[in-house]
Structure formats: C-alpha cells, structure tokens
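Fold it.
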Amino acid sequence: MTANSGYPLLKQMPVVLRARGFRLYTQDGRRLIDLWLNGGAAILGHTPPNVLREIKNTGGRGLYAPFPHFTEGRYLKALSKLFPGRSFRLYAAPPPELSVLFNTGEAKLWRPFSNPESPFAVTENAPVIIPILPGVQFWRGGLPLGLCVLAAESARCFDSGGQFAQFPESENLSPVLLAAAARGLYDIMAAPDRANPQFPRIEKALEKSPWQRTGIYLHLKEKPEAGDWSSLFHKFMEAGFLLPPSPSFPLILPGELSPGEEAKLVMALGEV
C-alpha cells in the first residue's frame, strides 16, 4: 500500500521491508504491529491471500491501464451486496464536489466492523456515504485515493435535477485495482468474526482509558493537538506499534495479537 506524503509522521518511521498480516518488518530490524492498517484499506491485513492472487492474476494479463473491463461490473455487484438499494460512482480521486460534502459533514465515512452485532450495518444518517474498504489506496485530506467509492441512497440522487446531479460519472479504473477490491469485499463479508477480536486485557483496560472503542476502532475521547499526537506516535512506535499518521484516522485493532503483544498494547494505551 502507498503512503501519502501529506502525512509527515510516516516519513519519520523506519523503512518497511515487508508486511505480513498485521505486522510490519523494518530495515532496522524492528517488528511493528500496524494499528493504522492504511486507514482501513488493509483491514484484512497486508497479505490477504485471495486479494494478492487477484492482483497477480489480473496484473499478469497486463491489465494495469484503466481500460473498460468486466471487473468494474464485478465490483459493483459486490458493492450492491454490501449496500443494497444504493447507487455508486467510482473515482480514482474524490471529485471536489465530494470533498466539499465530506468537509461539511454531509457525506459520511462508513467502516466495516464498527458494530460487532451487525458488522456491515449502514447506520450513517446521510444520503451519501464513502465506504472505507479493502483496496490499494492512499489518502488525501482523510479521503481515499486510488479507488474512492461514492454510495448514494438511490440512482435518483444522480438524475437530472437530483441532489447530486453535479457529480461526474464514474471513471475508468485499473482492472488490477477493481479485481483486488472486489475480492476484498467478498472476503470481509465472509469474515464477520473480524468485528469482535478477543482481547480481554484490552477490553478491561479500556474501561478506565482515554480511548473509546467502536467495534474494532479506537478514538481518543478528547481530540489531541497535532504536537501531542506526534509525541504519542513516537511513543507507540518505541513500544512496537504503528499509530495512524493523523488523529483523524481511527486506531484499528488487528485481527490477532500474541499475549505479549496484547500486554504491551495495554501499557501503551494507558500512557496517553
């Protein structure tokens, strides 16, 4: 996954040589538990076998360029299973109209596994949502680049005179991106247990913690200053964890932790 130069804290981490599951292995010999997971695009980990297979197979056919391809229909079908009744637009980067809606709060981000009892429920009270889903992405201003999905309540929103008629049509995207993203969607729908990882010591620690949990996501109860987040970023890295490069991203619990890693994370969470 590609990091965005707009997040300078990522420039201050060691060079990553490889990623396996929810762990990063750096050039200076460290192992970091990834609590950013590329803003949620790596929610299944960095080496989901089915997604990597789709990238290899589609790329092996030379389908890097954004030509019209049947993988778009496959991705839209997968989206329709997750968001029935909604209409979609696909962009390489969010158009200015969408950025405006996001910045004013009219368009809401949606994240899978926010509710352990209903991992894929769409509860956002907004006519437009922006799903944060598995894919090859990076970020600008808190919105995904590479593959950005706009999901409207219905196709009528895009009709002439509709609420979002000003939005451009979907863009052609690389079949490599679309094939991997479609496979990732089916994989998260087949993994509802990802919504409720069993970390009893973390659960107990959060009872008296400055962090609050929503599904697998943690946020600080009080918004930190930029300098405070930078200090926290480095403290967590020293403890063996990668925090998001901005407090606008949630901390994402990984799918697995060893007992020792869980104990270290409990200590780090209490040192805010």
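The radius of gyration is 19 Å.
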